[in-house]
Amino acid sequence: MQLIRAKPCNLEPLNKIKTSDMVAISTLSIHAADESHRVSDVTPPINISTTYRYDSDPAKLKTASEIDGLGDDVVYSRLSHHNGVLVEETIGAITKSEAVIYSSGLGAFNAAMAHLNPKKLFIGQAYHGCHGIADIMTRNYGLKQLSLSEEDLKLIEEGDLIHIETPVNPNSWCFDIQKFADLAHEKGAKLLVDSTFAPLQDPFEFGADMVMHSATKYFGGHSDLLAGLLLTKDKEVKKALQLDRVYLGTNIGNLEASLLFRSLKTFELRVKAQSASAEIIAKHLQEKKESLPKLLEVHHSSLQSEAFVAAQLKGIHSPTFSIIVDSAETARLLPSKLKYFYHATSLGGAESLIEWRCMSDVTAPPGLLRISVGLENVDDLIGDLVTALE
Ligand SMILES: Cc1ncc(COP(=O)(O)O)c(C=O)c1O
């Protein structure tokens, strides 16, 4: 039986873009996977199929030991599907690494822990969900957890893992990636960096062994999909992660992959615009603090002066930052006084969000509000925040 296909791609194959071509991120995010489009549609079709028909020619059938069902060799969507492949190819090109996509950021962290299987985990301030996963591992398998204090880091040994988040949730302060990479590597340990808050930074440049992102945030960018990412420089590690993902059951869904592929086309544009606005707003609030008695502190990497911050972020600060106001009551009220900020958790979307953070994070101080800057006009956002704080 002849399979009836969507209009096949009978165009001349586009010249393959190589990451070594030094092509800019904005171009790669649109064209890096051109060669893998299966049909001539400019926007690749949404595939919702969970399963794929085998070849109708019995002579071409292979056994399970001959096919892995990964990549474009599709068998079943938990293993791999076309839009997931397009997403991995594109993100791999723009991050100059091997990308593995997951159904959420925490799915990615869980997969990193399963793959690296550390003897001890050194973890400090980080997304509360990553602590939650580490706690499950401690409860079930006795994983030893230590902090990032100098005292604790003296105990690092081969086979251990340091996990840092930089800039860190919720206040967007940066940690020195190179310092932690050196500490880990001196002892044969590894460094995992959660780069969610600065999606354009390259932690590999400073020695990270693996990078994770909640792609729900800036890669997705529209508050309409959940996804996670692990990045590695090693093709073998990518393969091992993809094989583990089959049994962890955490591949990205087909529909989410289509949405994410759409989002990638505006990735750099969005992040740069949101980052520029966040820096302007954070600095403006910091300068106006004296005239705004309810505003006690502004936390953002653009207000840090250490040399490593400039080296890591290259002027593209996190589009998310936080403020501390004078009381829990002010923090509870402030979101209701704003016109252009939705009161909601999460970050990275086109619309600005503010969150009284202790509503979703038990470790947050009572006066902390986290602000995710969207794509609205920056003067409108400043006017809105200042009026509410006044
Ligand atoms: C820094 C950071 N890492 C990881 C996660 C988890 O990502 P997800 O919600 O996609 O599982 C989040 C979510 O807010 C986050 O902010």
UniProtKB/TrEMBL annotation:
The modification N6-(pyridoxal phosphate)lysine is found at K217. Signal peptide: none annotated. GO terms for cellular component: cytoplasm. SUPFAM superfamilies: PLP-dependent transferases (SSF53383). Transmembrane segments: none annotated. GO terms for molecular function: carbon-sulfur lyase activity; pyridoxal phosphate binding. Its cofactor is pyridoxal 5'-phosphate. GO terms for biological process: transsulfuration. It holds the Pfam family Cys_Met_Meta_PP. PROSITE patterns: CYS_MET_METAB_PP (PS00868). Keywords: Pyridoxal phosphate. InterPro entries: Cys/Met-Metab_PyrdxlP-dep_enz, Cys_met_metab_PP, PyrdxlP-dep_Trfase, PyrdxlP-dep_Trfase_major, PyrdxlP-dep_Trfase_small. It comes from the Eukaryota. Belongs to the trans-sulfuration enzymes family. This is Cystathionine gamma-synthase. It comes from Australozyma saopauloensis.
